[in-house]
Design goal:
Chain A: Its cofactor is Mg(2+). The complex is a heterodimer. Chain A is α+β, with helices and mostly antiparallel strands. Helices cover about 40% and strands about 20% of the residues of chain A. Helix content of chain B is about 25%, strand content about 25%. Chain B is elongated, with a radius of gyration of 42 Å. The chains are: A alpha+beta, B alpha+beta.
């Protein structure tokens, strides 16, 4: 064994036996540092004769790299040990609860209004709005309910104090102001503003002086209006069928049209929709007339009365169309299964988080306008 | 309106059963709200004969009967009625039958140890009247074993909602006419024989109010006996839900319910002199038949004599001259009143009646003489006496309306093809006269027919709305355009952003109490007829509704609450779309990690407001934080956000403790409000493409500055001047530390900023950085800031 072999064996043994990273670093300096023993040997190469250098060079280089590799390997081993030890000390109990991220909700009425906007946008309807504090003319007279019309009595209207009548809004000087009893005044306002042809829905708050288990003095309606040339009852029927099928996402929605009376439509049509009993709950769809099925009144509609079209400043010989109105709260209850209208307006956090919707359940045609339970 | 099948069959020959009739009524526009079928109600009750009656061995007041039910062995029945005796016939309820009066199901049972197989019933138990002193006693010829319902000839009673445009169907005959037109049978017009007068009418009548009462016809019938109505009449009225009173009163009601024709009978003995239809004198009073006294005014039409008012015309008669069992001579009144006048008077007096319902919708102006003849004949038949000549004042408006009709309109408006012959048949069956040129003469009773569309409705409803086929709306040509307005989009984004931020959307009442409104500055829109004091004023702010909801939630045990609402505020100048939120109590519950719960503070409200404004597309970077958030907020912990000093778009902060106290809330509440209509609407860009942009090639560098500033300096003022120090290089300045106390002089605070510098084409040199830093320090100095050593 040459001296170099001996040196290499000693060095590798010492490296192998180094107890910790500090000792290893001391060995690195001892062997490979500027003053290190192997570094010293390397310096002798320069003074050697070429022949000798050819022999010693590879040997010394081999010695140096073997030592460096051993140190590197040993160092990595120390680092691994250290990491293992740290990891072992860092264990978390991840069954502990994470901080709550509060989950908010969208009110069912808003959700349903967004659904309606989506469904009707597909049919070419825009969303229109109008004031809730209305004047008599828009709420009644222009809808063919003159001052003495008996149908006015059916509306249970909220009126504002007469002595505040000076606060009538610009659009209606000198008329008594009231809370709109239906969304129908938006028909008039939209027709006056935009003319025909027009396709709109008008969702919003409406008010009737009525309060019991199934009525609240404030509730939500959506109005639909189509005025064009050559629109007839068949189009109304199709539109309602299409809307209700899309809304309830059922093919088997059946409608029953019944003649009725509204001053602002002629002919007037009341629409019943078929339901069936599913586990004691009325679910829309099915047959209507079959055993275990039935009809429920859902909405009022009809061909817009000529007088209304004329009141809105259009020529009723040129323009005709249909209108309908339906309760938004009612639609929400039928689709999503709430049974207490009063709870809609109570702001009970428990109710809101149960019946409310995730903000990411944005109704879209591609995802389906409804949000399943 | 209620009527029985039997009553309908007086005017309609039909084989249809009740269900078919109901379905047809629905189909032609008379909504059936219910059918009460006595055959179902009386199921299990049959005629039985008492064979033996013996005292109960263990009870003084009971008897043990054996009764023959017409089949099988006689049954043993225990009975408590004193009139039960052998040989009588009555009504037996068998086990399984349900007693109409109390809903009890009869069972075979033992009464004081004696077996009883049913119950002999009283009048009251079967809801046939009030009598309950004993069991029903049927005539000797009553057939034992027959179902009681069949024996009684009871028939199903329809409850039908008549729409206000069809007063002609507020009588059974009118309904029969519609059903006959719909093919459900043959109309049987009543036989109307003129009733000859036997003597001149002893009372003069006059109308001095030809507008309110265009026609007033009458006659006297003298020598009547006004007893109880016979059973057929009493039953008819009962089926209609009316209480029988006396034959004459019942007959006027019968006229109204049969023909939609109200009439009135006065006790002639109580009248003085000429009977006149006139306007009331303001202040005149009348005690009406409902025993209430009404004060009248000069717009109201009344029937009066020389002594006073006897009738609120067309609405309700007076108590004084009403007929009684003692009445022997009556004056009958059949008049035509102006519908509008009746409506106005009725509303003013708050007085509803069956007569008003019909007159204000319009009765048949061509049915005065016929109506009077029918009524006279019925009275003569039931009450005897003799009739005077008819006297007539004025004349009803009978000019028939003629509508030029185009049968093609049925297809164009109604969407259904109906053959012209069939259209003609339908109209004629409804009493319209149709000539060759389709000039349609309307029956005078059809006040609702104004034009061709109404005739389309007549044709379509009788032909069948179910025959209208769905026709797709034509789809608009071209590329679909978005249909939502900018405000609608803003609302949608805000709603979903707030929910994504953890808030629950509430919808609260638009009206609040006056007290609550006053707490937030008062509301100008006050209801005249609120449903309660709690719902009286249109909210000028969404906050009261949310605070009330918060209080309810806290009362239910919530300790943390995040609520928002998007809705309108109602101010003197109109309605303003707004968002408001409340953050109530604890931001987070106590936890293993965070320890004590942390309550919300004003910065939570600020963060939320800014986040929502960003979601709404407001120019958040340009907002100024200013004061004057208003009286609802804590004066030192609230602010407004404005675009320019006057345009206030949001406010936020801690709710004023006094307001919380007024709402009975004892935890801190943070709130915020956004005025949606104050946010400038982004004008639609011409293209979807964004402005060209490439991230800077060189990295931004940060420099920290710690300033000593006056203690009351708003941090935003320091940040603003620092940002403005070198608009090209300084791209951001962020407060990362605020400190006062040890080491900071009295009246000063230390504010530390991290300023971000963005190099352009070339990196900054040390000299350039030094120059920028000097500008920053100089700018800060203008706000009284000095660089900390």
């Amino acid at each position: 064994m040459t001296d170099l072999d001996q040196l290499k064996t000693d060095a590798l043994t010492q490296i192998e036996n180094a107890p910790d990273a500090a000792a290893l670093e001391a060995l690195r300096i001892e062997f490979l540092g500027k003053q290190g023993s192997i570094s010293g040997l390397m310096k002798t190469l320069g003074k050697m004769a070429p022949e000798e250098r050819q022999v010693q060079g590879p040997l010394l280089n081999g010695l140096r790299s073997a030592t460096a590799d051993a140190i590197a390997a040993r160092k990595e081993a120390f680092e691994n040990e250290e990491l293992e030890a740290r990891l072992a000390s860092e264990t978390l109990d991840l069954t502990l609860p994470a901080p709550d991220v509060p989950q908010g909700s969208v009110h069912p009425v808003s959700q349903v209004m967004d659904e309606l906007a989506e469904i009707f946008a597909d049919l070419g309807f825009s969303v229109a709005t109008g004031p809730e504090i209305e004047d008599d003319w828009h709420n009644f007279t222009a809808l063919n309910m003159a001052e003495t019309h008996p149908a006015r009595a059916m509306h249970d209207t909220f009126y504002f104090l007469q002595d505040r009548a000076d606060q009538t809004l610009d659009n209606a000087p000198n008329t008594r102001m009231l809370l709109r009893t239906h969304t129908s005044p938006v028909q008039i306002r939209s027709l006056v503003e935009h003319g025909a042809p027009i396709r709109i829905i008008a969702p919003g708050r409406v008010y009737r002086s009525d309060s019991d288990a199934t009525h609240t003095p404030m509730f939500h309606q959506v109005e639909g209006l189509v005025i064009d040339r050559a629109i007839h009852l068949g189009h109304l029927k199709w539109t309602l069928e299409t809307f209700l099928k899309a809304f309830f996402e059922r093919e088997d929605i059946v409608l029953r049209l019944r003649p009725s009376y509204f001053p602002f439509t002629e002919p007037s049509v009341e629409v019943d929709v078929g339901w069936q009993d599913v586990d004691g709950r009325r679910v829309l769809g099915g047959d209507g007339d079959a055993p275990g099925h039935g009809w429920m009144e859902l909405l009022g509609s009809g061909m817009v009365n000529r007088r209304v079209i004329a009141f809105a400043g259009l020529d009723p010989d040129e323009w005709q169309g249909f209108a309908f109105g339906v309760g938004v709260d009612r639609l929400a209850m039928l689709k999503y299964g709430m049974d207490d209208l009063r709870a809609f307006f109570d702001g009970d956090r428990r109710w809101l988080s149960h019946y409310g919707f995730s903000p990411f359940d944005q109704p879209t045609l591609s995802a389906g306008v409804g949000a399943r339970a | 309106m209620k009527f029985s099948l039997n009553w309908l069959k007086v005017y309609l020959t039909t084989e249809a059963d009740a269900a078919t009739i109901a379905a047809t009524l629905n189909a032609i526009g008379h909504e059936v709200e219910g059918i009460d079928d006595p055959a179902e109600r009386f199921a299990g009750f049959r005629i039985a004969e008492v064979l033996t009656a013996a005292p109960h061995p263990d009870a003084d007041k009971l008897q043990v009967l054996t009764v023959d039910t017409g089949e099988g062995e006689p049954l043993q029945v225990v009975c408590g009625a004193p009139n039960a005796r052998a040989g009588m016939k009555g009504v037996l309820g068998l086990p399984g039958a349900v007693v109409p009066a109390n809903g009890m199901e009869l069972r075979k049972s033992a009464i004081r140890g004696v077996e009883s197989n049913g119950m002999m019933c009283s009048v009251r138990e079967l809801e046939l009247g009030e009598e309950h002193d004993g069991i029903i006693e049927l005539p000797g010829d009553a057939p034992v074993g027959t179902d009681f319902a069949i024996y009684r000839g009871t028939s199903p009673v329809f409850d039908v909602a008549i729409t206000p445009n069809r007063p002609d169907c507020m009588g059974v005959y009118g309904i029969a006419r519609d059903l006959a037109a719909a093919g459900l049978g043959t109309l049987k017009p009543p036989r109307i024989d003129a009733v000859e007068g036997r003597f001149p009418c002893p009372v003069a009548i006059r109308t001095e109010d030809p507008e309110g009462c265009p026609a007033f016809y009458g006659r006297v019938i003298r020598g009547v006996t006004n007893g109880a109505s016979p059973e057929w009449l009493a039953n008819a009225l009962l089926s209609a839900g009316q209480r029988p009173i006396s034959a004459i009163v019942d007959l006027t009601n019968f006229m109204m319910l049969s023909y939609g024709r109200p009439a009135h009978a006065y006790d002639l003995a109580k009248l003085t002199g000429t009977v006149v239809a006139r306007r009331a004198v303001a202040g005149e009073q009348i005690e009406a038949l409902n025993e209430k006294t009404y004060t009248l005014d000069e717009t109201m039409t009344v029937i009066a004599d020389e002594a006073g008012v006897h009738d609120i015309a067309g609405i309700m008669g007076g108590e004084h001259s009403s007929v009684t069992p003692e009445t022997s001579d009556v004056l009958l009144e059949i008049a035509y009143f102006d519908p509008e006048r009746i409506g106005v008077t009725g509303r003013k007096l708050g007085l509803a009646s069956d007569a008003r319902t019909r007159f204000e919708r319009g009765v048949d102006p061509a049915f005065l003489d016929d109506g009077l003849a029918l009524l006279s004949a019925l009275i003569l038949e039931l009450c005897g006496g003799e009739a005077s000549d008819v006297v007539r004042a004025g004349a009803p408006p009978k000019e028939p309306r003629i509508v030029t009709f185009d049968p093609g309109l049925t297809r164009r408006l109604g969407g259904v093809e109906v053959a012209e012959d069939e259209q003609r048949r339908i109209l004629e069956a409804l009493d319209f006269r149709v000539d060759e040129a389709w000039q349609v003469t309307c029956p005078p009773r059809r006040h609702d027919i104004e034009g061709p569309a109404d005739l389309v409705e007549e044709v379509v409803r009788i032909h069948g709305l179910d025959k209208v086929e769905s026709v797709a709306l034509p789809r608009a040509e071209g590329v679909a355009k978005p249909t939502a307005t900018p405000l609608q989009l803003m609302e949608r984004k805000l709603r979903r952003a707030a929910a994504a931020r953890g808030l629950d959307e509430a919808i609260t009442w638009s009206f609040i109490s006056e007290r609550e409104a006053d707490l937030v500055g008062g509301g100008p829109w006050v209801l005249d007829n609120p449903i309660s004091e709690e719902m009286k004023v249109m909210r000028p702010s969404l906050l009261p509704g949310l605070l009330s909801a918060a209080r309810r939630n806290l009362a239910r045990g919530a300790s943390s609450l995040r609520l928002f609402e998007i809705g309108r505020r109602y101010l003197a100048d109109g309605e303003h779309p707004s968002l408001a939120f409340v953050l109530v109590g604890d931001e987070a519950e106590r936890g293993w990690k965070t320890g004590k719960p942390r309550t919300f503070d004003a910065y939570d409200a600020k963060a939320l407001v800014l986040d929502l404004l960003a979601a709404a597309g407001a120019p958040v970077g340009n907002l100024m934080v200013m004061g004057e958030a208003g009286e609802v907020y804590h004066p030192g912990q609230s602010a407004t956000l404005r675009l320019g000093p006057k345009n206030r778009i949001a406010s936020f902060g801690a709710v004023h403790p006094a307001l919380l106290k007024a709402f009975d809330i004892d935890v801190p509440v943070m709130a915020g409000g956004i005025h949606l209509d104050a946010i400038p609407v982004k004008k639609g860009a011409p293209s979807f493409a964004r402005a060209a942009y490439a991230p800077p090639a060189l990295q931004a560098i940060g420099r920290d500055f710690a300033f000593l500033v006056p203690a009351d300096l708003a941090a935003a003022d320091l940040v603003r001047v620092v940002k403005g120090a070198d608009k090209k290089a300084v791209v951001d300045a962020r407060v990362f530390d605020v400190f006062a106390g040890q080491g900071v002089p009295e009246g000063r605070k230390s504010v530390a900023l991290e300023v971000t510098l963005q190099p352009g084409e070339k990196s900054f040199t040390d000299v350039e950085i030094k120059a920028i830093s000097d500008k920053v320090v100089a700018a800060a100095a203008k706000q009284g800031a000095e660089l900390r050593g």
